[in-house]
């Protein structure tokens, strides 16, 4: 699947450019909190594991034996219905970019499910303990299959 977004028109200001350039792409605070909770629950996992069938994409937290893929989706980047926002500067470009992100997420989920994986997506604002419990239940359920 090819998701085309036109070239970025450039940052609307130096401050925005600086803020976007330092935004974490992996090992975000919410990912780390969830991983700590999962580890404390006795679960072991792989981090940034390549998606089978598309090695350019990665699974945030992968339980390879149980085939459970966990994604911690950022509210802005993945279009959270509660907290997602649409930038006013370069609005057309951002609209296409965020739509492409959501389409890529759906494609990745479909790809993994077709390969026999269970996919769990949690929002960055999810309470880490609740998210860990959801993931643990899914992993333990899949291990019993």
From TrEMBL:
Top-level taxon of origin: Bacteria
Cross-referenced SUPFAM superfamilies: Restriction endonuclease-like
InterPro entries referenced in this protein's UniProt entry, alphabetically: DNA_mismatch_endonuc_vsr, Restrct_endonuc-II-like
Protein's UniProt keywords contain DNA repair: yes
Keywords: DNA damage, DNA repair, Endonuclease, Hydrolase, Nuclease
Stored Gene3D superfamilies: VSR Endonuclease
One GO MF term: endonuclease activity
NCBIfam families on file: vsr (TIGR00632)
Family: Belongs to the Vsr family.
Record protein name field: Very short patch repair endonuclease
Organism field: Georgenia daeguensis
